[in-house]
Amino acid sequence: MSDPASTPQPAHAGRFDLGGRSLRTHTARGTLINGGFSAGLMLLGALKGFVVAVLLAPEEFGIWGILVITLGTLGWLKQVGISDKYIQQDEEDQELAFQRAFTFEVVINAVLLCLVAAAVPLMALVYGRPELLAPGFATLALLPAITLQAPLWILYRRLRYTKQRALQAIDPVAGFLVTVVLAIAGAGYWSLVIGVIAGAWASAAAALISCPYPLRWRWDRGVLRSYVSFSTPLFVASFGGIVIAQGSVLVSESAVGLVGAGAVALAANITILTDRLDHMITSTLYPAICAVADRTELLFESFVKSNRLALMWALPFGIGLALFTDDLIQFVLGNEWEPAAEVLQAFGLAAALNHLGFNWTAYFRARGTTRPIAVNSVATCIAFLAVTVPLVYAHGLRGFAIGTAIGVVVSLAIRAAYLVRLFSGFQIGRHALRAIAPSVPAVGLILLARVLEAGGQRTLGLALAELATYVAVTALATWVLERELLREALGYLHRSAPAAAAPA
């Protein structure tokens, strides 16, 4: 991924202050720097999930799962690309551009506030659980806080990685501390509700302090039309995600009971760690992708290499979760979580496979082509309604696990079709085989060990020894198969600033 010898004035000139580095080097360094932040926050999130799962009964975790899926997925409706469009634009007056985007964000969140307020009593009625009312209304406090976090977009657009991540880290760190303290004190699911609200407002306060522009109301119908054109397919995609997420909890609660909702919530809470890594890499790349959106060869190179780097983590994590689910339940979560075993395994494998081409949407958004994102979401939603829902009612949580796998296959097929149109040299089958290869020796070794152990007593020490073996063998195989890419990526951390003429 070395820089070409010469190139015209890069398209991003004046857009970023890269400190003398090329855009390529700066972005690669940012990916690794952000990876350090995200790895720490993911471990914190995992610890929070496990601690709360231990301290709360499955039924209490089920209440939290209903709140998260119902109200949290309504929040997906605001993920219509306001920040993405702001990053993509290249107006001369950036203060005015931010204030316009912030105005649209205020309007969308105000509408969403009304929708959530109306949804709370409906949610309690549908599930027949009046105890959802109080925590549901309490979560309304999140929306103003999320709105006031908009100044973080400015750092995002300027590729100010360290400051951006430091401010974003305030939310999960504060939320973790508040949640764990309240959970230990016996606050039940309220520990999760209050923790999330506290973290969001702490981050909002920090974002406001860092904002270089005054917050102003700037309504512009002409600019609004460009945002609507960009955002409508993203709105459709978000709505499809809501149907799947809300339907998952609603159907599992209806078919299996509150324990079923808790199982789905726990599986989603654990596997979301890989989604956060997705978001970290994608958000790092997106402003740089926007700056070179017309240079297909650079887009293809960054797409393939960023995917290979992410898959080094995501595939072993998802496969490992499926491989060690029984140990996780027996030695960490407790036997009351046994009904969640197959769902955890399915979510782990689904999260692993879903990383194949995981950041494809960023490349279509950067080019202003958001329709494929909507098509993928609608097709996946249809598969959920037509396949997963009947399977859950017929086979319970096992049916949910099977349906989840089918949904991932549908999504991957559509994703691959669009990626081939954008990148003529892309082959998702070859991409998948290369990504899976480092995990094969480790999985084979663990399965062989379990065959030899058949009939013996499973102990915590044995489980930890197998886990350590799995991690070590996977790391070794990854280094052997991907050492050139790893050396290249790590080299960016030690590379001095290139000459001023260095290109993107």
Short summary:
This protein is an all-alpha fold and 504 residues long.
Describe the model.
- The chain is an all-alpha fold and 504 residues long.
- The chain has one domain (23-436).
- 77% of the residues lie in helices and 0% in strands.
- The chain has helices at 23-55, 58-74, 82-88, 94-127, 133-138, 142-147, 152-157, 161-168, 170-184, 190-210, 221-256, 258-291, 296-323, 325-333, 341-353, 360-366, 371-395, 397-422, 428-436, 439-453, 460-494.
- The N and C termini lie close together (11 Å).
What tags apply to this protein structure?
mainly alpha; 504 residues; 77% helix
Mean pLDDT: 81
User: What is the helix tally?
Assistant: 21
Separation of the first and last Cα atoms: 11 Å
Oligomeric status of the shown chains? Answer: single chain
Biggest sheet architecture: none
Q: Please write the string of helix (H) and strand (E) elements.
A: HHHHHHHHHHHHHHHHHHHHH
Whole-angstrom Rg:
23 Å
Approximate helicity band: over 70%
Overall outline: globular
Number of strand elements: 0
When the domains are counted, the total is 1
Low-confidence stretches: 1-11, 496-504
Alpha-beta content class: mainly alpha
Determine the strand fraction and express it as a percent band: under 5%
Summarize the helices and strands and which ones pair or pack.
Elements: H1 23-55, H2 58-74, H3 82-88, H4 94-127, H5 133-138, H6 142-147, H7 152-157, H8 161-168, H9 170-184, H10 190-210, H11 221-256, H12 258-291, H13 296-323, H14 325-333, H15 341-353, H16 360-366, H17 371-395, H18 397-422, H19 428-436, H20 439-453, H21 460-494
